[in-house]
């Protein structure tokens, strides 16, 4: 996968201010406000910044946490996981492997009835859904 590298000025030109805040400054959209929280449409979720495939609708589940949740990425190489010690806690940040944009966080061992027991808690604004053509 070819990496997408842009200057921060270039990112500001291609992203809206709110997209930039989340994707490039590791912000978080308010819970239950994102366009994909309750979406059941089948398709592929791509990175809003670079278009890389990140998640498939088959891995999306209702976690009732306020953000779209997936139990696994579409490919293990699609995302990069980093330790995040911000806000006085230790979490695992999820970033797009292609453009290094912040997507959200992943949590493990919360007891969800999914194949992986992982919850990739992803900001809707970091994603773009490409509906399945049927």
From TrEMBL:
GO terms for molecular function: metal ion binding; peptide-methionine (R)-S-oxide reductase activity. InterPro entries: Met_Sox_Rdtase_MsrB (IPR028427), Met_Sox_Rdtase_MsrB_dom (IPR002579), Mss4-like_sf (IPR011057). It holds the Pfam family SelR. It comes from the Bacteria. It catalyses: L-methionyl-[protein] + [thioredoxin]-disulfide + H2O = L-methionyl-(R)-S-oxide-[protein] + [thioredoxin]-dithiol. The keyword Oxidoreductase applies. The keyword Oxidoreductase applies. Its cofactor is Zn(2+). One of its GO terms (cellular component) is cytoplasm. Residues 8-132 form the MsrB domain. NCBIfam families: peptide-methionine (R)-S-oxide reductase MsrB. This is peptide-methionine (R)-S-oxide reductase. It comes from Thermostaphylospora chromogena.
């Amino acid at each position: 996968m070819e990496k997408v590298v842009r200057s921060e000025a270039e990112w500001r030109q291609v992203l809206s201010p709110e997209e930039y805040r989340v994707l490039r400054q590791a912000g978080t959209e308010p819970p239950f406000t994102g366009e994909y929280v309750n979406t059941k449409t089948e398709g592929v979720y791509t990175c809003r910044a670079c278009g890389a495939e990140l998640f498939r609708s088959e891995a999306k589940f209702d976690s009732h946490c306020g953000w779209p949740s997936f139990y696994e990425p579409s490919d293990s190489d699609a995302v990069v996981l980093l330790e995040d010690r911000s806000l006085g806690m230790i979490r695992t940040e999820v970033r797009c492997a292609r453009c290094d944009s912040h997507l959200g966080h992943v949590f493990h061992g919360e007891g969800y009835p999914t194949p992986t027991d992982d919850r990739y808690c992803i900001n809707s604004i970091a994603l773009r859904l490409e509906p399945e053509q049927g």
